[in-house]
Amino acid sequence: MNKQTVYQALERQMLGYADLVDVAVSDDGESLVPLVETPALVAHQLRAEMLPITGRQIYVRQTVRERLGQASLQLQAAGLQLQVGYGYRALSVQRANFARQRDRLRGTVPEASLNEAAHRCVAVPEIAGHPTGGAVDVRPLVADQPADCGTAMWEFVPDSYTFSPFIGRQQRDTRLLLRAAMTAAGFAPFDGEWWHFSYGDKEWARYYEQPAAVYQQLEFSTPAEPQV
User: Fold this and answer.
1) CA-CA distances (angstroms) from residue 5 to 9, 99, 120, 215?
2) Which residue in 26, 135, 140, 219 is deepest, having the highest Cβ count within 10 Å?
3) How far apart are the first and last CA of the chain?
4) Residue-wise pLDDT tens digits, 13-49
5) How large is the angle between the packed helices 62-77 and 169-184, nearest 10 degrees?
6) How confident is the model at residue 121 (pLDDT cuts 50, 70, 90)?
7) CATH classification number, 3-207, choose in 1.20.58.460, 3.40.50.11690, 3.50.50.60, 3.30.1380.10
8) 172-176: long-range contacts (C-beta < 8 A, 24 or more apart)?
9) 167, 150 in Cβ contact below 8 A?
């Protein structure tokens, strides 16, 4: 069995646009709150696109913050820290990113399949987890440095699929340790990106067979810094 065949088999196990588009949403009104660092949890905004909107602070829903704390303690017991590099993404940013992806793909797939094809790389805004405040991108740290997970966070290659068999055993074990800590805290994994987990969004609802997502997409920004 060649690599491409293995990757395709892994992709068939992942939730896609068609699996998520009809998931109901009943937002519970929970607030977005800033992540607070602890000895077990490191939180720095690592993507420049959000700096004009929320600065270096990462925001998530209140329950997500609590569950990240739980996951970080489990990893700490294994000698690791949990680093959160991304949480809430402005809906306007998601829409712009998705539109660019659609434009790149236009003409390469049938028009009726554009959303499905684009969603594989950039989630459809009405489905995306980051704009709900429920999705996070995380990685384990060891001695303040990223643990070796086989690929870098946001390295969008097939070997970033969580269960790729083409990485080292220790790298795979580290991924699975992260996955175990996050799922034990109630997060749903997206196994197309070993770093991506969510709680309360459509992907979480579908993964855990919940009747509805509890977080809707929303626009949010922090107050502007006072001018000196």
Assistant:
1) 6, 30, 18, 36
2) 135
3) 63
4) 999 999 999 999 999 999 999 999 999 999 989 999 9
5) 140
6) confident
7) 3.30.1380.10
8) 174/140, 174/147, 174/148, 174/149, 175/149, 175/150
9) yes
Does position 225 have pLDDT exceeding 50, yes or no? no
How far is CA 160 from its chain centroid?
A: 13
Compute the mean pLDDT over every residue in the chain, rounded to the nearest whole number. 94
As a whole number of angstroms, the distance between CA 164 and CA 35 comes to 31
